[in-house]
C-alpha cells in the first residue's frame, strides 16, 4: 500500500520535502511500521523519529494502529513553546 506522510517545520526541511510517499509491503501497515519506513526513506529524519508521533486523520495514534487507504498521515515532531 502507498502511504503519503505529511511533514512540517524542521522535519520537512531535513527531508527536503513536505511529504513522503512510502510503499509498504502490507495492505494495512501499522503506525509503527510507517515510522520505520520513514527512517529508511528519509535517513535525515532518523534522529528525530524517537521524539515524533504519527497523527492519523488528525489524531495521535499508537504504534499498533493500522493505517487504511485514504487515511491522512502526518509526522508530528517535538513541539515546544508556552
Topology:
Blueprint: E1 2-6, H1 9-15, E2 19-23, H2 31-41, H3 46-49, E3 53-56, E4 59-60, E5 73-76
Parallel strand pairs: 1-5
Antiparallel strand pairs: 1-2, 3-4, 3-5
Q: What does it look like?
A:
The protein is an alpha+beta fold. Helices cover about 25% and strands about 25% of the residues. It contains 3 helices and 5 strands; from the N terminus they run βαβααβββ. It has a 5-stranded mixed beta sheet, with helices on one face. A hairpin with a 2-residue loop joins strand 3 and strand 4. The radius of gyration is 12 Å and the shape is globular. The relative contact order is 0.26. The model has no long low-confidence stretch (mean pLDDT about 95).
Q: What's the shape?
A: globular
- The number of strands is 5
Task: Record the strand order, biggest sheet.
Answer: 2-1-5-3-4
What's the mean pLDDT score?
94
Number of separate helices:
3
What are the low-pLDDT stretches, counting only 5+ consecutive residues below 50?
none
Radius of gyration: 12 Å
Cα distance spanning the termini: 39 Å
Helix content: 25-40%
Major beta-sheet overview:
5 strands, mixed
Structural class estimated from helices and strands? alpha+beta
Instruction: Give the H and E element order.
Output: EHEHHEEE
Which range does the strand content fall in?
A: 15-25%
Amino acid at each position: 500500500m502507498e502511504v503519503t506522510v505529511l511533514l512540517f517545520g524542521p522535519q520537512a526541511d531535513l527531508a527536503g520535502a513536505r511529504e513522503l510517499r512510502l510503499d509498504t509491503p502490507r495492505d494495512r501497515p501499522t503506525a509503527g511500521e510507517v515510522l520505520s519506513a520513514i527512517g529508511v526513506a528519509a535517513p535525515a529524519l532518523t534522529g528525530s523519529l524517537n521524539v515524533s508521533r504519527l497523527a492519523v486523520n488528525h489524531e495521535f495514534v499508537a504504534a499498533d494502529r493500522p493505517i487504511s487507504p485514504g487515511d491522512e498521515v502526518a509526522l508530528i515532531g517535538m513541539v515546544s513553546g508556552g
